[in-house]
Amino acid sequence: MSEDTNHTATTDRAGTIPLPGKIIAVHLNYPSRAAQRGRTPAQPSYFLKPSSSVSATGGTLERPAGTELLAFEGEIALVIGRTTRRVSPAEGWAAVSGVTAANDFGVYDLRTADKGSNLRSKGGDGFTPLGPRVIPAAGLDPAALRVRTWVNGELVQNDTTADLLFPFGQLIADLSQLLTLEPGDVILTGTPAGSSVVLPGDVVEVEVDAPDAAGAPSSGRLTTTITAGTAAFGDFGSKPAVDDLQRIEAWGSEAEHAAAVAAGRASALESAQPESGTVSEQPASVLTDEIRQLLDGVAVATLSVSLRKRGYHDIFIEGVSSNHTGTRMVGTAKTLRFVPFRPDLFERHGGGYNAQKVAFDTVNPGEVLVVEARGERGTGTVGDVLALRAQVRGAAGIVTDGGVRDFDAVAQFDIPVFSQGAHPSVLGRRHVPWEVDVTIACGGAAVQPGDIIVGDGDGVIVIPPQLLAEVVAEAAEQERQDAYVAEQVAGGEPVDGLFPMNASWKARYAEWEGPR
Prior knowledge:
Layout: E1 3-4, E2 23-26, H1 31-37, E3 46-49, E4 54-55, E5 59-63, E6 70-71, E7 74-80, E8 84-85, H2 89-92, E9 96-103, E10 106-107, H3 111-114, H4 119-122, E11 128-136, E12 146-151, E13 154-160, H5 168-176, E14 186-188, E15 203-209, E16 222-228, H6 244-251, H7 254-262, H8 289-295, H9 300-309, E17 316-317, E18 321-322, E19 329-340, H10 343-349, H11 355-362, E20 367-372, E21 380-382, H12 384-392, E22 397-400, E23 403-404, H13 407-411, E24 417-419, E25 431-436, E26 440-442, E27 445-447, E28 452-456, E29 459-463, H14 468-490, H15 503-513
Parallel strand pairs: 2-14, 4-11, 5-16, 19-20, 20-22, 21-23, 22-24
Antiparallel strand pairs: 1-8, 2-3, 6-10, 7-9, 7-14, 9-11, 12-13, 12-15, 15-16, 17-29, 18-24, 19-25, 19-28, 26-27, 28-29
GO molecular function, one term: metal ion binding
Pfam families: FAA_hydrolase, RraA-like
Binding site for Mg(2+): 406
């Protein structure tokens, strides 16, 4: 039953907004933004912003001292005009007295502090500029509004309400099921693609209009100039923290971040480039040029013999084979782990810049990306785009104990890919991307980041780095002996006493090999 009263919000004669009692923000609503994030929600979800975050005119906004990732989000703000409780979606729009421009600023450096509440990351003073004018809702078509954002005069967001995931009436109906919307409350209705990071000195402008309505009414441009904060965070609460995932999400994509780095506006990814003047925490690889030269002539089968002598038996990644005949792969392990599919886990971890995308975006030259898929071959774990990304990044190969999508296309790439074969399905059938750079189990073998991965026609083997030098030296010697034995067999010698070599043959081998 509808409980929609006629207590109407008022505005001053300039059309500006009184201080709202509640500010409710929608997480995702524009298809363009959902595509950018890699997930499309089935139903709307929300968070609250404090009324103290409102800036009625825009003006200036401090980027907090010690933070890097202050991002803008141009949005359409709905101003509630009457007390509204339990209305239907068809009745929802009638509760709106007007619309205006909003900028839902947020600091990605503080996202981890609130675990999803967004209180500090989006609730700071001045983080919700509104205005400068309210467009009366009467006569407006809620599906024919437009929001645009400019940064330093360049248009960066431009979208309409024609195909929102959740129309305005639905948002109001959904919210009013459990809480009373009151005159003056504001609903921020989501941002389209194009949200990104701004720096001190940047000027951000947001405008909402109805270009097809009579008179093409507009909110005017809501202008905010970014300044640098000077007050440092104290030691009595969570401090700002950023990582590669936050940088890429804040800038909008890795490509946008890379462009910002090239323009001198952003810090490089930590995994790709240590800060100037610091020493990388990654230990120097034991896979030296000398060892690589020895490995070039050593088969996986021979390496396995040396490892078995040392008590290492479960070092094969079982069940995988290469997409290229005659492939040889050598590199250090970078790991990615999938867990079994569960709808709630996939909702939280499967979309957006998930662990799978992070792994392929941060794999370094010479690394082999090793994927734990629990031996589940009934879905793809790698496709053509991700395989190409790994190749472009300089990866030495990919190993998964699951399936590969776009198998024929992947086989055309230069990068070696070892898998259980082809499967057309996507992750959500069996897997949830979970974490990177951890110890995993792939094909029955334990794999840690930094382990040495070697693959050839016999399969893939894992060598603990502390054993690499002695195992390779022994295996290389065994290969030389095997080459000698093969030469003798080819010349007509019987294998008895030769394979393995008895004392007589060992003496003849030493003479054949000569001084070393």
